[in-house]
Amino acid sequence: DEPRPCPASIDRACDAMSSLRRTDLLALSHLRNDGRKPGEIRRMTVKVGPLTTSGSASGSALVQMGLTVALATVRGPAECSRRSDELPDRAVLDVTVRSAPFAPGGDRRSANPQTDRRLVEQSNLIKKAMEAAILLHLFPRSQISIDVVILADDGGRLCAGINAATLALVDAAVPLRDMVCACSAGLASGAGADGADVELVDLNALEARSFGGEAAVHLPCATMPQRGTVVLAQCESRVSIGTFERVLAAAMEGCAAVFDIMQASVRERAAAQLAARNGNASIESGF
Question: Three-state secondary structure along the chain?
Answer without folding.
Answer: CCCCCCHHHHHHHHHHHHHCCHHHHHHHCCCCCCCCCCCCCCCEEEEECCCHHHCCCCEEEEEEECCEEEEEEEEEEECCCCHHHCCCCCCEEEEEEEECCCCCCCCCCCCCCCCCHHHHHHHHHHHHHHHCCECHHHCCCCEEEEEEEEEECCCCHHHHHHHHHHHHHHHCCCCECCCCEEEEEEEECCCCCCCCCEEEECCCHHHHHEECCEECEEEEEEEECCCCEEEEECCCCCCCHHHHHHHHHHHHHHHHHHHHHHHHHHHHHHHHHHHHHCCCCCCCCCC
